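User: quick one - fold this with magnesium ion bound?
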Amino acid sequence: MAPFAKLALVLTLTVGSLPILAAPSAPNIVLLFADDLGYGDLGCYGAADYETPSLDRLAREGARFTDFYVSSPVCSASRAALLTGCYHERVGISGALGPGSRIGLNPEETTLAEISRSRGLATAAIGKWHLGRPEAFLPLQHGFDEFFGLPYSNDMWPHHPSVRHLSREERIKRWPALPLIEGNRVIDEEITAEDQRMLTRSYTSRAVEFIHRHRDKPFFLYLAFSMPHVPLFVSAEAEGKSGAGLYGDVIREIDDSVGRILTTLSEEGLDEHTAIFFTSDNGPWLSYGEHAGSAGGLREGKGTCWEGGVRVPFLARWPGKIPAGIVVHEPAMTIDLLPTVAGLLHADLPSRRLDGKDIWPLLAGEPGAKSPHDALFFYYQSNELQAMRAGNWKLILPHRYRSFSGKIGRDDGIPVDYDQAETGLELYDLSVDPGEKVDVAKEHPEVMEELIGSVEMMRQDLGDRLTSRKGMGNRSAGVLPDSE
Ligand code: MG
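Assistant: Sure. Structure tokens for the protein plus magnesium ion:
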């Protein structure tokens, strides 16, 4: 073979076998996602009954956002938005998918894991999935190399307190056995109460093991805690540790998990090479009383588009890149993580339309950095556009909602009923009224006109059942064919 041909062959082989690696400056990504953790549930967001030292450390060593949102105050919809960078209505996932649902996140959508994988990162999903139970929709079919966890919520379970009085036969009809899954395979057909007590610790051990295993290879770790979603459970080690009852113990155990992850990253010398994000999928499930978290003075909670349902803690730490101790007041949303991470990894964005925007200037503490969004929209139920935020204005569109305001919950894990309430077209100035107490719509007709104009554009794009509008930009969820 001529020397040139030989060289060309060597070059071809070398280039062909090289993985596409992230740029040398690109970080590992650790995304920590709590379930039903309220805006007021962390020390750094005002919780006073118990301590959250490791999460407070994230705030101290990184950025704490005061005005960070999910797109919908419920599990599956919120997760779809987080992982795709799109409003959940765009990707066709609303509400919370049940165990028998034949719907899931469409494999045609591009997830954070696929973005990470496109740059050579190893990817793991640990914890709660809730974007489709059928195998076609599990994490391995969405860009994750590994999965260990539950396919959906830990209360979709035959031992749920609300069905405890029924016979096993009746309970199983209501909620089938809750499986633990590894990869695509069920490794434990029925999660027991003892297993639930170990969930946070098992997830953490898996996450720690994954980090050790990838000390020399870039990675994306998505750790989605099942807690503090009811039914609440903690390990024997965490029992009584918070001094603030079971809910405090559950949060403290999540905090300990974050601490173990921080320690592991330090041990492996990965602190400066890892961007960590922590947030929650929606606000507290208030009807559970003492077993629910706190919205920290915001109005209502999970299952509503008032601030208590959709505003959540958001912490981000990347030593040397995200300034320590900054507090960001600009509005942002979980949909912004995908384009932000894509930017950090120098990855191509998905070809399909995104709603999220790169918020790196906010995270990097750039002077004068503004929210990249003119407005953020909140859909709940099936395609109901219930609220929007633009600047400090929060516009509430007429809708019915469940209200817990002023009610008293129980202390035994059994929920009490919500009241049904109805709201008209209302406007709140969150800069002086984050609790959404004083409707100022009548004082600001020009603001109302402008915001309603934005709402109209959104209705054209993603539809709105409240006004019988069909959207032009909705894509469909994945649907399992009848034969499978
Ligand atoms: Mg949730």
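One thing worth noting: Confidence is low (pLDDT under 50) at residues 1-17.
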